[in-house]
Write a structure and sequence with these properties.
Length: about 425
């Protein structure tokens, strides 16, 4: 677990400052027990069976983390892969082809052929993709994604239902999907939706679920091969101090009972699938960095660190809030309002910001050399990192109790300088 003991931040049994001292910063650190406990909680609280949980690998694709998820999830866990790269990673982590689903958008024939070659089920995102899939692989099994015209999420960029969203087959057009499937002899084994990311209220999830289930009910006749309904991911986690975690027990009970009721009307016990990414890994990860600059303008006291939006883009991309602590002085009587900024050469590279600009954060007085931890960084942190400004991506370590394992080495200069 990630905890504060004697005012110091610990990951498992290891002090964050010891990790920074040993491995240097910037550094992503993950707590294995947190990941395992999230997998366990989900499988326990969502009581409906048969249940399949496709972990959305895009949240964190580190191979060692995928292996932890596979190990903890046993047969409940599979992988939602969005690219050939994620399919390869999932197979390498030990997931079997039938535990993986390829759900992407604007997909090429080559990508579909790749998935087919690996015996991975393709989830079609458009009528056009379904038509091309039918030509490539007639008389095979397929899944397709519906846009239920209900969306939700922490930011407009991650809402994936409704007319502003490029995803899925519009629910009203689903009849055309059945025509295409019939033309190519496709067996529709799954129907899927994902309405968005960072949802903390069960109601929104249920509203979209009801739309999807009613579409399926309406087309019962065409769905005689249906084996599973995938309700998507999107379960949020709290980032801000005033946010509460989703009521997982309430969520699990509500989706389970709604789905069970639907199945009894449908006449068959179908598998219910979920696709959480963030929920499983976000709270396991922290990004450690070191303060190297403190400077003042008439408006802000800037605290400059040795990482930036090339390593954690969420504040810059969505104005997202991430808690930040000084690892060896988590609280202090002496505090100051500061803007924690990165080392990328753009003014937007500030970790303490919202969509509109800088929002100063009250932290214990900070000096150069202090190590900071940016918390709740396990999802969409490293996986969205880049080499912008020709900088290396950081290393990653996994902590399990007292054990510390390097699960990705920090990149060297030759990673970023082609031909070096
Ligand atoms: N299934 C599909 C089809 C998805 O597109 C996604 C996420 C998920 C499942 C998992 O969603 P989750 O449970 O992690 O919310 N970079 C953004 C999030 C983008 C999510 C993209 N799709 C962020 O940092 O907030």
């Amino acid at each position: 677990m990630i905890s504060v003991k004697s005012n110091r931040l610990f990951i498992g049994e290891v002090a964050a400052s010891d990790l920074a001292g040993k491995f240097g910063t910037p550094l992503y650190v993950y707590d294995e027990e947190t990941i395992r406990s999230k997998v366990r909680a989900l499988v326990q609280q969502v009581a409906y069976r048969p249940l399949k949980v496709y972990y959305a690998a895009k949240a964190n694709t580190n191979l060692s983390i995928l292996k932890v998820i596979r190990d903890e999830g046993k047969d409940f866990l599979g992988i939602d892969a969005v690219s050939p790269g994620e399919i390869v990673l999932a197979l390498k982590a030990g997931f079997r082809p039938e535990q993986i689903m390829f759900t992407s958008t604007s997909v090429t024939d080559e990508e579909m052929k790749f998935a087919m070659g690996k015996r991975v089920l393709v989830n079609c995102d458009s009528l056009s993709q379904l038509e091309r899939y039918g030509k490539l692989n007639p008389n095979s099994s397929v899944c397709f994604r519906i846009n239920p015209d209900v969306g939700a999420g922490h930011h407009s960029h991650v809402i994936t239902g409704g007319p502003e969203s490029k995803f899925g087959i519009w629910a009203g057009d689903v009849g055309k999907a059945f025509d295409i499937a019939a033309k190519y002899g496709l067996k529709i084994v799954g129907v899927h939706q994902h309405i968005g990311s960072g949802i903390l209220e069960t109601d929104k999830f249920l509203a979209a679920m009801k739309v999807l289930l009613s579409v399926i009910n309406k087309h019962k006749g065409e769905l005689k091969d249906l084996e599973f309904v995938d309700l998507g991911g999107g379960i949020g986690v709290p980032y801000r101090p005033d946010q509460k975690p989703i009521d997982l027990a309430g969520f699990g009970a509500a989706v389970s009972s709604l789905f069970a009721k639907f199945c009894s009307g449908f006449g068959r016990q179908l598998t219910m699938a979920l696709e959480p990414g963030r929920f499983i890994v976000a709270e396991s990860g922290v990004l450690l960095c070191t303060v190297n600059t403190v400077k003042q303008t008439p408006k802000h006291r800037f605290v400059g660190v040795d990482t930036g939006f090339h390593h954690l883009i969420r504040p810059m991309a969505y104005g997202s809030y991430h808690p930040i602590v000084v690892v060896d002085r988590c609280t202090s009587e002496k505090t100051e309002k500061v803007a924690v900024c990165g080392n990328v050469c753009e003014s937007g590279d500030v970790f303490t910001r919202d969509e509109h600009g800088i929002v100063d954060r009250e932290l214990p007085s900070v000096k150069e050399g202090d190590v900071l931890a940016i918390l709740v960084a396990g999802a969409y942190g490293f996986s969205m990192a880049s080499n912008y400004n020709t900088r290396q991506r950081p290393g990653e370590v996994l902590v399990n109790g007292r054990d510390v394992r390097v699960i990705r080495k920090k990149e060297s200069l030759s990673h970023v300088v082609y031909g070096m």
